[in-house]
Amino acid sequence: MSFLLFYQIINRELFRSLQAIHGKNYQAFMLRKLIPVAGNVREDDMGIEAKLAEEISEEIDVVVNSAANTTFDERYDVALDINTIGPLRLMRFAKTFKRLKVFLQVSTAYVNGKRQGRVLEKPFCTGDTIVKELFSHELSADSTMPLLDIEAEIDLAFRKKSSPDDSQLVQQLKDLGLKRAKTYGWQDTYVFTKAMAEMVINSMRGGIPVVTIRPSVIESTWKEPFPGWMEGNRMMDPVVLYYGKGQLNGFLADPNGVLDVVPADMVVNATLAAMAKHGSTNEPGMHIYHIASSMVNPLVFEELARLIHKHFTSFPCMDSKGRPIRVPKMKLFDDMNEFSSHLHGDALQRLSSHEKLRNICSKLVDQAKYLANIYEPYTFYSGRFDNTNTRKLMMEMSEEERREFGFDVGGIDWEDYISNVHIPGLRKHVMKGRGMCVNSSQLVGARV
User: Fold this and answer.
1) Strand, coil or helix: what is 258?
2) Between vectors from CA 339 to CA 333 and to CA 342, what angle results, nearest 5°?
3) Positions marked catalytic
4) Which tens digits make up the pLDDT trace of 64-94?
């Protein structure tokens, strides 16, 4: 297991600062700090064998659950098993721990579903629905609201899964998840199953202090361990990369809407601060923290589009022949039909007699439409996440702690972050330098 740990975790670029500090003693240092245990949230006791599970129950005092399937339109049975039943299994396991001080669940700010305006940091109780919250006052006396029964949802999904072999089963389970989510007022299967997880944890916690961290869209690091680090494409990144490569010059988004973004290291710092506070006070309760920017430092889509264009104008990607790719200003569309027409019109201009190029172009159009459809609830989202609890948490820290473990999203300069940190980090860590611009040394050397 230590071999696996070394190559999958501690040898990653993320830890290069620690590697520089400890040099040849780095591996030994990390192995003194970390004990890897293979587990599976889809099994009772995380699939850990009994003797080791007993040892863990004697020693562990903090549990952090960040395991999740984040695919917006995942199969309903899979999303439920990982995102809802997984935390249930983990809480059941954690309740056997002799020294447990705090259970911390990493959720998402978008569990708030289709709530509008100022969205407060408040917990969910079993059976809560966004539909009931938003529309109950509009119902007549003989009308009824759909009631959320989590056990019934699980039964529904798994009965569908066990139905006779059907070539369309996977798509049907995906459609089922989206349908059930929207029935109760959530955007998609991911946030719906995460919201149900919060309900389950709240109902099971008893006297255990529970912290729920709700970050918005997590993007590349702001400062620590170094600016711009990330792995994989996050929410806005496929659009940014398609645009930079000249494959997409517009997207479906409210120009005056807000993309709620928060750097990954701020989420980590807030998590550590909440863990330290509630692990030491040992006060039972459900403590919610929004790690989000839309209330205190909103990033407007129109401004984001300007910053992306500015970056790729200054530091263009290169085509296969080493020529800079010139990008037009990004167009934002507030209507799906207009965006679809734009995509097809743009595709017609690119069409080639070469069949392979036609196929590539067609796939790009399909991918852009898929992204627009799946992201539409977020690119037109009118909720703004209040972070009063998070700001109070930060103010309770000493000045030195705030300096070392800061998470003040209000202090982010978005132009600097997007232009000099995030996009350069995306190009370095995700694109791995492919299609790097002529001034690549200037691009990489500034902050990333």
Assistant:
1) strand
2) 115
3) 190, 194
4) 999 999 999 999 999 999 999 999 999 999 9
